[in-house]
């Protein structure tokens, strides 16, 4: 067993990093498990990936769930179906026993983590609890009573089993304690980092602003949920106020064609392709504001990426967002019921003050360097794991 030493002279731990999908693949869950495991490995820990887990019955339940959504209001969540849960948890337990690790790390693993073999410390990481996302997040709306009861039980049992519980926001941490009776001493808020292969250097993104109009950027995979329609309305409002404005929406397409002066839609860019990744980085560098009128979000990783590029965010204060964006530092929070007028007012006020905009660019980058990066996350989480 690897017993290299990590910072502080403490022995490294052999960590079974268990995920339903392939946690070593940067494409899984937007790369968050990949960056988590990499940061823990960089602290000297011996990371062994366990996953993908096996649930042969899952395709049947996916098809059944799709059928229910087509013909009925209520549906089940295929990953919370009793047979799927049983297969995932049994496979995880079998592989963990064979590995005999010092610690199990299970990001978003409530489907199986409740069944981690006794005697092995469990670290559970998530960006929300089921109580928070029920009827809030689009993947958890209109669930059947059975699906709700199962999801609730899995969340409660996993939190009760975990020796260490990690969230990126106080929003989620408070729910674990309030709604599931988690021991506050086991719950910790550790902000997540930017899922970037290479963070830009500070000098490359700060300095003299490129002349031209006010440039807005929105990156998201779901047009409706990310509020792209509101972003387009904000573009129109700003131009009506006499503010020359451009908006780039990347990662999604509207349900029906949208034509508006100053609007550019890029349906998809693959961050794992060098050329496309460079183009996305250029979008960040050229923008003045990252605009995200999201309707439901737990911890949008794009806000960390925006901060890495020194880009202030203008975003709806919903879910875990207020813990990723600090008012006046990394951006502006608008109320949950904000309209195009509210977004346009916030943007035009700051854009009219170049010195304030530059200060926010610098403080956004400062926030990335001090707390919104995976190196800081890995260092703190490694110390917490050592305490186990």
From TrEMBL:
GO terms for molecular function: hexosyltransferase activity. Keywords: Transferase. It comes from the Bacteria. Residues 35-197 form the Glycosyltransferase subfamily 4-like N-terminal domain. This is Glycosyl transferase. It comes from Nitrobacter winogradskyi (Nitrobacter agilis).
């Amino acid at each position: 067993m690897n017993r290299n030493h990590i910072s502080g002279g403490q022995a490294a731990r052999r960590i079974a990093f268990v995920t339903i999908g392939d946690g070593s693949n940067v494409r899984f869950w937007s790369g968050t498990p990949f960056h988590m495991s990499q940061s823990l490995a960089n602290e000297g820990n011996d990371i062994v990936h366990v996953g993908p887990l096996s649930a042969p019955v899952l395709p049947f339940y996916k098809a059944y769930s799709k059928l229910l959504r087509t013909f009925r209001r209520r549906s089940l969540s295929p990953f919370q179906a009793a047979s799927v849960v049983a297969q995932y948890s049994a496979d995880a337990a079998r592989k963990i026993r064979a590995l005999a690790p010092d610690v199990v790390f299970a990001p978003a693993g409530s489907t199986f983590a409740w069944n981690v073999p006794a005697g092995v410390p469990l670290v559970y990481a998530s960006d929300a609890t089921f109580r928070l996302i029920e009827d809030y997040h689009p993947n958890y709306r209109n669930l059947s009573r059975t699906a709700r009861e199962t999801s609730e039980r899995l969340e409660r049992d996993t939190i009760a089993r975990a020796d260490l519980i990690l969230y990126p926001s106080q929003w989620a941490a408070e729910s674990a304690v309030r709604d599931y009776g988690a021991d506050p001493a086991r719950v910790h808020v550790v902000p997540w980092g930017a899922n970037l292969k290479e963070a830009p250097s500070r000098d490359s993104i700060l300095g003299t602003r490129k002349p031209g109009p006010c440039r807005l950027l929105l990156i998201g995979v779901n047009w409706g949920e990310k509020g792209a329609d509101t972003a387009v309305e904000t573009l129109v409002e700003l131009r009506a106020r006499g503010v020359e404005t451009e908006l780039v929406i990347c990662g999604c397409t509207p349900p029906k064609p949208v034509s508006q002066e100053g609007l550019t839609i890029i349906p998809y860019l693959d961050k794992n392709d060098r050329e496309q990744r460079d183009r996305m980085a250029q979008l960040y560098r050229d923008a003045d504001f990252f605009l995200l009128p999201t309707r439901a979000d737990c911890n949008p990783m794009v806000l960390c990426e925006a901060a890495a590029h020194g880009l202030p965010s203008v975003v709806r204060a919903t879910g875990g967002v207020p813990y990723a964006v600090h008012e006046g530092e990394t951006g502006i929070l608008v109320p949950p019921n904000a309209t195009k007028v509210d977004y346009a007012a916030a943007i035009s006020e700051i854009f009219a003050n170049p010195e304030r905009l530059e200060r926010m660019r610098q403080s956004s980058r400062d926030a990335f360097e001090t707390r919104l990066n995976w190196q800081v996350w890995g260092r703190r989480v490694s110390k917490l794991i050592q305490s186990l």
